[in-house]
Design goal:
CATH topology of the largest domain in chain A: Rossmann fold
CATH class of chain B: Mainly Alpha
Largest interface: A-B, 22 and 19 residues
Mean pLDDT of chain A: 89
Largest sheet of chain B: none
Order of helices and strands of chain B: HHHHHHHHHHHHH
Distance between the termini of chain B: 49 Å
Oligomer: heterodimer
Strand content of chain A: 35-45%
CATH superfamily of the largest domain in chain A: P-loop containing nucleotide triphosphate hydrolases
Helix content of chain B: over 70%
Radius of gyration of chain B: 24 Å
Number of strands of chain A: 20
Number of helices of chain B: 13
Helix content of chain A: 10-25%
Low-confidence stretches of chain B: 265-271
Structural class of chain A: alpha+beta
Largest sheet of chain A: 6 strands, mixed
Distance between the termini of chain A: 36 Å
Shape of chain A: elongated
CATH topology of chain B: MetI-like fold
CATH architecture of the largest domain in chain A: 3-Layer(aba) Sandwich
Chain lengths: 369, 271
């Protein structure tokens, strides 16, 4: 249990920048996820926190202790790897007790702790088995028990579920969250899987090209993306380049008017974005509503288009609609999807919630230097 | 009728393949076993009215000392090899040593160089340049000649061992040494045991380097066989010693595959 500070952490391998000036403060007991595509530096960041990788510059602090120069064994961390990495020649009990045995704990203390941990992960009675006799999910739970046995200050997870099948991933991610909540340990979790990140995090750090694009809660990141990368990486999005031409209305009804590819769109104004600015306009597919012809009341924007393709996905149907030469994705759920999959030809779309992102945000720090 | 004539050649072709493949296996076996059988027959030959079994009494009588020396020298050479190769292999695999490949190739040199050349250079080294007491010169010479056979399987085993086990151990609070002793060493066991077997067989049966380097009062079993054959021809008792040595090597190989250590030390790297 500790507050973790990453202060301007950078890691370079020759000319390649893996992590660039990364700062993050994690509260005691908080569950923070580093989310990003492969190669974005999230694992390197986690390994720097663990002490497995030495940062080129920057400091790591746990509470008030600077641990930057300490080896992993002196940081009192629990690291769960992508593979369970259970020692194949040791029994499950010896694996769980390993951390205590290298610290020369008494045998009876170790045995008691091992039993406690096995019960905690729901595998009591498995102590005498060898790792190879367990399933993948059981192995990862033992790996979790093994790190918890040492009572670490910080829990670090490096895509621990990526090697498991989908059903197991779904159940195990809640087990991880549950154990973290019960032990109230600070946790940093690395994943490229959005649904995983959304399910278990207190806060999410979206990473790209070695730096944090945006740090926030699930709703912050989904509803208010700050950069084009976040808007496009998280969920599905329709992005249109455009230019703010003016404003319209006042007070709560004030809207920025944006000209985007032959369309004139009205969006809630965004601080720092004014007439003349180049912007990217983002529309979430689920916010586009297929309107009965002639009805457009209550929507800031109403556009006409032609259905190009309908994809039935089960709970939702995806429409690809050509609007003024641009293809927009529209997601329809509920009973209407069944009605719409029969439809062809022209369609009218209404939508309100547009996100404006100034193009300057796209010119974020270059990925490598 | 026509069906039978069509059938027959196919059956015949299969039988022929069977016979040929079995014949080939037996041919190989005979080829390998024949020298041993010849030696065994010779060792059981009678000399001056005593029975062939008496030849074997010499092995543990007058040749006993020679066998003992062989075991001593082999055991010590293996220990030296282990002491050198375990850290060397770890450094070569786990650390970014510049010129790794060149170093590894150079370390294989004793395998390429003829025994007589090594013997001569070792003789110069341990007799004139750094004179070493008694048997230690021979032990070191054996280690120099055989350590690539120890190093290579350990390097292979280490390369196959994912780094994540060591990292997991260190994150759980183990020192580098604890991680090595408790995790790495048991997991590279098959490589270590393969190295031990190879080195033992080579060192135990080696005579050429011994001929150059051994002090006058130290005669290992292979050297004794060589000396006896040179002076007396192949006497039955000499053959008996040679047979015993072959059996010891054979038992070592069997032990390696069957008995050696626990499940982690079995010789999985050779099969």
């Amino acid at each position: 249990m500790a507050i973790v500070h990453l202060v301007s952490v950078s890691k370079r391998y020759g000319a390649t920048v893996a992590v660039e000036d990364f700062s993050l403060d994690i509260a005691d007991g908080e569950f923070v996820t580093l989310l990003g595509p492969s190669g974005c530096g999230k694992t390197t960041t986690l390994r720097i926190v663990a002490g497995l990788v030495e940062p080129t510059s920057g400091r790591i602090r746990f509470d008030d202790q600077d641990v930057t120069d300490l080896p992993p064994r002196k940081r009192n961390i629990g690291f769960v790897f992508q593979t369970p990495a259970l020692f194949p020649h040791l029994s499950v009990a010896d694996n769980i007790g390993f951390g205590l045995s290298v610290k020369k704990a008494r045998k009876d203390q170790i045995a008691a702790r091992v039993d406690e941990m096995l019960t905690m992960v729901g595998l009591s009675g498995y102590g005498a088995r060898l790792p190879a006799q367990l399933s993948g999910g059981q192995q990862q739970r033992i790996a979790l028990a093994r790190v918890l046995a040492t009572d670490p200050r910080v829990l670090l997870f490096d895509e621990p579920l990526s090697a498991l099948d989908k059903n197991l991933r779904d159940s195990l991610k809640y087990s991880i969250l549950d154990l973290q909540r019960r032990t109230r340990k600070t946790a940093i979790y690395v994943t490229h899987d959005q649904s995983e990140a959304f399910a278990i995090s207190d806060r999410i750090v979206v990473m790209n090209a070695g730096h944090a694009e945006q740090i926030g809660t699930q709703t912050d990141i989904y509803l208010h993306p700050q950069t084009p990368f976040v808007a496009e990486f998280i969920g599905a999005n329709n992005g249109l380049p455009g230019k703010v031409t003016g404003t319209d209305g006042s007070g709560d009804d004030e809207r920025s008017v944006v000209s985007a590819g032959g369309l004139t769109l009205r969006a809630r104004p965004r601080a720092g974005v004014g007439p003349g600015d180049e912007v990217l306009v983002y529309l979430r597919p689920e916010n586009l509503v297929v309107l009965p012809d002639g009805d457009g009341a209550g929507y800031d924007n109403v556009v006409d288009g032609t259905i190009e393709r309908v994809i039935f996905e089960g709970p939702t149907a995806q429409l690809r609609v050509d609007v003024a030469g641009r293809e927009l994705r529209v997601d329809v759920s509920g009973g209407r999807r069944l009605e719409l999959i029969q439809r062809h030809g022209r369609v009218r779309l209404g939508f309100n919630d547009l996100t404006l992102i100034p193009v300057t945000a796209a010119a974020a720090p270059p990925p490598t230097s | 009728m026509t069906a039978m004539t069509l059938h027959r050649p196919r059956l015949k072709a299969r039988r022929l393949t069977d016979i040929l493949s079995h014949g080939y296996i037996w041919f190989c076996l005979v080829l390998f076993v024949l020298p041993f059988v010849a030696l065994l027959t010779q060792s059981l030959g009678e000399r001056g009215g005593t029975s062939g079994i008496d030849n074997y009494a010499d092995v543990f009588g007058s040749f006993g000392d020679n066998l003992l020396w062989s075991f001593k020298i082999s055991g010590l050479a293996l220990l030296v090899d282990l002491a050198v190769c375990l850290p060397a292999a770890y450094a070569l695999v786990r650390y970014p040593v510049p010129g790794k490949r060149v170093i590894f190739s150079l370390l294989q040199l004793p395998l390429y160089v003829p025994g007589a050349v090594i013997g001569l250079s070792l003789l110069m080294t341990y007799t004139f340049v750094y004179p070493i007491e008694f048997m230690w010169g021979l032990v070191l010479a054996m280690s120099v000649g055989s350590f690539p056979l120890m190093l290579t399987p350990i390097v292979v085993a280490l390369k196959d061992l994912p780094l994540v086990f060591e990292e997991a151990a260190e994150c759980l609070g183990a020192t580098k040494w604890q991680a090595y002793r408790k995790i790495v060493f048991p997991l590279i066991g098959p490589g270590v045991s393969a190295g031990l077997l190879l080195c033992f067989i080579i060192v135990f049966n080696e005579y050429l380097v011994t001929l150059f380097v051994a002090p006058p009062d130290l005669e290992t079993a292979p050297l004794r066989v060589f000396n006896l054959v040179r002076t007396n021809g192949l006497a039955p008792s000499t053959a008996a010693l040679a047979v015993t040595m072959q059996l010891i090597s054979f038992v070592a190989v069997l032990a390696f595959f069957r008995l050696f250590g626990t499940r982690h030390f079995k010789g999985t790297y050779i099969l």
